[in-house]
Amino acid sequence: MVDARLEPNRMAPILEPPENSDSLHPEPEVLFDDAPIEATVLAHLEGRSIVTVSDFSRREVIELCRLAAMLEAIEVSRFRPLDGKIVVTAFFEASTRTRTSFESATFRLGGNIISIPEGQVTGVKKGESLSDIGEMFNAYADLVVMRHTDTDAPRQIRQNLRVPLINAGNGTGEHPTQALADWYALLKWRPDLIGPDLPLEKRLHLGILGTPGSMRAVKSFLLMSLLFRGAIRKITVISEMADPFGDDVGREIRKCGIDYHVTNDIQSNLRELDVIYMNSIAFLGDSYKALDARYKLDNNSPLKEDAVILHPLARLDELSTSLDDTRHNLYFSQAHGAVFMRQGLLASVFGRLDRLSEAISIIAA
Amino acid sequence: MVDARLEPNRMAPILEPPENSDSLHPEPEVLFDDAPIEATVLAHLEGRSIVTVSDFSRREVIELCRLAAMLEAIEVSRFRPLDGKIVVTAFFEASTRTRTSFESATFRLGGNIISIPEGQVTGVKKGESLSDIGEMFNAYADLVVMRHTDTDAPRQIRQNLRVPLINAGNGTGEHPTQALADWYALLKWRPDLIGPDLPLEKRLHLGILGTPGSMRAVKSFLLMSLLFRGAIRKITVISEMADPFGDDVGREIRKCGIDYHVTNDIQSNLRELDVIYMNSIAFLGDSYKALDARYKLDNNSPLKEDAVILHPLARLDELSTSLDDTRHNLYFSQAHGAVFMRQGLLASVFGRLDRLSEAISIIAA
Amino acid sequence: MVDARLEPNRMAPILEPPENSDSLHPEPEVLFDDAPIEATVLAHLEGRSIVTVSDFSRREVIELCRLAAMLEAIEVSRFRPLDGKIVVTAFFEASTRTRTSFESATFRLGGNIISIPEGQVTGVKKGESLSDIGEMFNAYADLVVMRHTDTDAPRQIRQNLRVPLINAGNGTGEHPTQALADWYALLKWRPDLIGPDLPLEKRLHLGILGTPGSMRAVKSFLLMSLLFRGAIRKITVISEMADPFGDDVGREIRKCGIDYHVTNDIQSNLRELDVIYMNSIAFLGDSYKALDARYKLDNNSPLKEDAVILHPLARLDELSTSLDDTRHNLYFSQAHGAVFMRQGLLASVFGRLDRLSEAISIIAA
Predict the structure, then answer these.
(1) Residues C164, C274: one domain?
(2) Of A143, A263, B285, C181, whose CB neighbour count within 10 A is largest?
(3) Do residue A315 and residue B119 have CB atoms under 8 angstroms apart?
(4) Quick check: is A36 in a domain?
């Protein structure tokens, strides 16, 4: 696979896009029509664990998004690239949405799933350590997807785990595959954001409704946005908290020299934003809390005409369904694309992109 | 598949029937030996959702029963007709029996399962709407099997769901695939019931021990029985409730002009019945209740010599195990056949009957 | 398969052994390098249920260990010997470790899993009998793996179950597949233990930290050890209980004439032992209890230089992680090997060893 590039085989069947009223569903083809995928970039992911956004380079994120686009456009399940592979989905914090997304991605690629929907009912209840659980998984699985209430959980399980780990959310830590899905939605919507240094008038004003320091999806989105700093004019964080960043996020954002602004005033800032990222749920200690509950959006909110909204879902009432049938709704596309993004990531980490060569031609670089 | 008919390929291996003492296990062959299946009838099910018994025509029920009989008689798993397809079993009300029945049916046909055994532990707990969950499933699955405590749940999830839904029980609503299994057992036992207009002495006197208005399996059985009115002489409902029907069932039963009778006296009616349908469990509000608990059957009950008992199971003490080894026991055959019926339904809704052509020859109509 | 013998096909890929610091990971090759497996011995397991250790002969245990060794050394998943087969993992007592071990073993052989991680949420909650559940499984599955808090559960479910049952732990009863994994680890470590009558100086002094009468894993290990009496010099049971055996274990151990000794003094006995078997958790009534909690091992414990420790895991603090990186640690190898042992058992019970003939040559006896 070294020095190879991928492009779709036009003989393969094209999947139907969803037909969803007026919501935005940008076509995936825009991300790969003009150039083949650089397989050599993705080859570096083979065998790697994904714990934080910092495990990705900008090039890797872009090529993963372009691979996801191919997988969204082309039916590949009959090639079974993960044939014989077993993925454990170990959810010590329950999340049907994320768990089933990974399980669906694995099945679409022909792999098998050992599902642990509620890890707390296991040996953990009896007091077993994550490190011992990691040792156990070595014999049972080829890759582990884990969600946990404890921010330190990925480090603990990796003390003995020798197969790759994908972090699907750790306490107030990160949720890096959600950030991949977020940016996949943005790049389908605006493929020009891939460009390393956009003219100022084309750059985005990103708005974040929420508190990155205690909302891991928000934090990972923000950290991945820093990889695309050449496409961003400004970041505005609207939060009830005076210091909505944790130490590490604050340091990263200052280090990269991006223009950012923190406020608790939603009214005077909302109409300036090109992208609004929101999440209802913050992780506090051992449980969820609806943070920043004052900040709600509906179809009367003063949004810029072509502003788009991202939300990792599930939502409560902070995001009104009255926005579902509008051109601001990019969150359904974001949710829909997540499963293809996870397919691309799994195929890359398993080093099985070559098994797709009947559907996606491999081009020598 | 249009204008095609199916008959079994005699080279295919025949499954062993269960050997269960004296209980009734009618052979499935009686349902397809004399004529091929009308594939054009089943082709109308492709892509359809199944929410109530009224989603079926009489012809569809008959051809589904005959297809189930073929699938019970012939081993088809190696043809993998659902290869590459993903079924979500979303049980917001737990039911191992029904869930595993659908999962087994899917695996026997080569499909994959995403299992949500206890939907209440998911985003729902955080307040997510069924409509949002439906939108999520579009990306993850090709078909959804759902059970829910809320009678209105199928309508809610279908607001955004674009893949077919099979209702596996909704509150006090319906359980249409259970009714298919019920009638499959009856038709194997008495294939002549397929005839549209039986002579009076061959028609059945159906007895129902229970309250259709709050027992969804009983309700669906009763509604499907109305499709076979030409095979029924009379329906007697034995219930503690003065009006055991809900509004809609009462209207349907009166509209079809069938002779029916409501009583709370089991002793004087039991010996008249050809078929006794019972269920121990009624759904009341948010929980189960053992209704009509006075009505119990055992091997001392005054049953007609050739009367048969149906019960959707699980049972409590209303149906004594002393009846298991008698010729009245059709309920084990009913339970055994359910998985083949669900196979037939899944293959039809997925439009994949043609993949069985090596086992079941397709005959042009 | 009758009169056939198996040996590995050297063309098949060899699996990488785990690289785990100083812990013991004996190579599986030692168990099959000198002689082919006697397939005729394993053929007797086809279609059989495994409820207690007494369901195995000594020859069957040895050949299962040798088959497990081949499966550990050679990648066989692409041959899918369990293709089309469905295994139900019915855990009426939750255990992620054992459940996922069986599920992984089934997937590695190409079978499907219907997973019931917490059986108590099902019809059982409504009062359904195990005998009715067994009848249900006949239609859904080809083999049932069950764990249950009730020691009598295997007998109850088998009243109607006609497919094979593998007991994965029943109350204070047995855990026979754990004993297979235990002895598989011991035979890899000391292949000479297979010999029927070792010279005294080569025989093992087995030490058991725990109470076989209320610890099913300990009991099954002890009962299987009696099959290898020619390799054992003495058994010492170190327990807080005056009579740590139940009636049946006591009778068996006396009947076989092995030298055994019961004590509550760990200090003066530990340095004599060649093998130490321990388990933290005893099953008392309906729940677990940490029994014999005074008996803890760490890297300061006075162990014989080449003594090895076995533990079925999960562990609490009775087995210190300070022992993990020592040559006493055979428990990681024991855990790692369990999944291959279960593969071998499943392939044998399903009578599908012939499907492995591309990887493992079948030699006529």
Answers:
(1) no
(2) C181
(3) no
(4) yes
Nearest by CB to A136, from C115, C118, C335: name it: C335
Q: Which residues of C touch B78 (CB under 8 A)?
A: 83-84
Contact A335 B121 (CB under 8 A): no
Instruction: Name the residue in chain B with its Cα closest to that of A21.
Output: B160
Express each pLDDT in A45-103 by its tens digit: 999 999 999 999 999 999 999 999 999 998 888 899 999 999 999 999 888 899 999 99
Pull the structure tokens for residue A250.
Answer: 């604050």
Nearest-by-CA chain B residue for A19: B162
Integer Cα distance of A91 and A147 in angstroms: 5
- Rounded to the nearest angstrom, the minimum Cα separation between B211 and chain A is 35
* Residue B78's pLDDT band (cuts 50, 70, 90): confident
pLDDT at B191 over 90: yes
Please give the C-alpha separations between residue B135 and each of A20, A167, A340, B290, in angstroms, as whole numbers.
Answer: 10, 24, 15, 36
- Interface with chain C: mutation pick from B85, B87, B104, B329, highest number of C CBs within 10 Å: B104
Residue C347 in tokens = 């392939």
User: Which positions of chain A have pLDDT values less than 70?
Assistant: 1-21, 119-126, 281-293, 361-365
How much is the pLDDT for A5? 63
Both A114 and A17 in one domain: the answer is yes
The answer to whether the CB of B55 falls within 8 A of the CB of B25 is no
CA distance B135 to B99: 22
Closest C-alpha to C97, from C338, C360, C356, C319 = C338
In terms of CA atoms, which chain A residue is nearest residue B131? A321
* Model confidence, pTM: 0.93
Nearest CA in chain C to B288: C126
Same domain assignment for residues A225 and A80: no
CB contact under 8 A, A123 and C96: yes
Same-domain check for residues C63 and C210: no
Interface test with A, best of C91, C107, C296, C322 (most A CBs within 10 A): C107
Distance (Å) of CA A195 to CA A274, B136, C50: 17, 31, 63
Can you give the CATH number for the domain in which C232 is found? 3.40.50.1370
Residue-range definition of the domain harbouring residue A220? 177-334
Sign of the alpha-carbon dihedral angle for B350, B352, B356, B361: positive
- Note the pLDDT tens digit of each residue in A114-126: 999 876 645 545 6
Geometric angle at alpha carbon A317, from A314 and A318, rounded to 5°: 85
- Per-residue pLDDT, A128: 87
User: What's the Rg (C-alpha) of chain A?
Assistant: 20
Q: Give the ipTM of the model, two decimals please.
A: 0.91
Lowest mean pLDDT among A99-113, B3-17, B48-62, B305-319: B3-17
Distance CA B121, CA B108 (A): 28
Range in A334-338, B337-341, C90-94, C330-334 with the lowest mean pLDDT: C90-94
Question: Which pLDDT score is estimated for A94?
Answer: 84
CB contact under 8 A, C316 and A126: yes
Q: Which residues of B touch C116 (CB under 8 A)?
A: 96, 100, 117
Domain annotation covers residue C181: no
Q: Give the minimum alpha-carbon distance from C120 to chain A in angstroms, rounded to a whole number.
A: 13
